[in-house]
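Entry for the shared binder. Reason: the reviewer on the internal report wants the predicted structure included alongside the sequence.
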Amino acid sequence: MATTKENILKSASVVLARNPSVTYADLAQQIGIGRATLYRHFAKREDLIKALMIFSLNEIDQVVQPLLAQSLTSEQYLYKMIEVLIPIGERFHFLSQADWDAWEDDDVKSIYLRQDQEFREVIDYMQKEGKIRTDMPPAWIGAVFNNLIFTASDTLRAGDIARNDAADLVYKTFLTGFGAQDASDNK
């Protein structure tokens, strides 16, 4: 494996998304590099975590921001967002697993807060349109969305679902749980 910073970050995101408390030594082993190589690129764990958070947030921007410039309905935007996030599901999920001091970093915090606001605006708009339930807290909706993206990414990697089916599965599952005409309303 090439030991560029980008490759280390991508590989580390897979491990940290599954086990945020993995030791630095075990992390190096699991991503297939020596500890010295990991330390050469990131002198301490906190440096790696902050770099991975910024890398992940920037990667999300790279795939989602072009969608904002398109004339899409809220449902089309949500579907396309799912499509572009699944390939980077580990990094997307890593951020939700992160209980790191790096959240206090101004760069990390400002990017994350902007992205979170953009997602909440989509959900708010879909709620106003009557597409999404209004009786669920936005934080819950966001957490479920995050886990659906990671599950699709992880299941794809395992070869258990087809790439062409992944976005449909996430979208349908999301709307089944949060759609305005959810079956649980008919108790």
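Summary line for the report: Residues 45-68 form the longest helix (24 residues).
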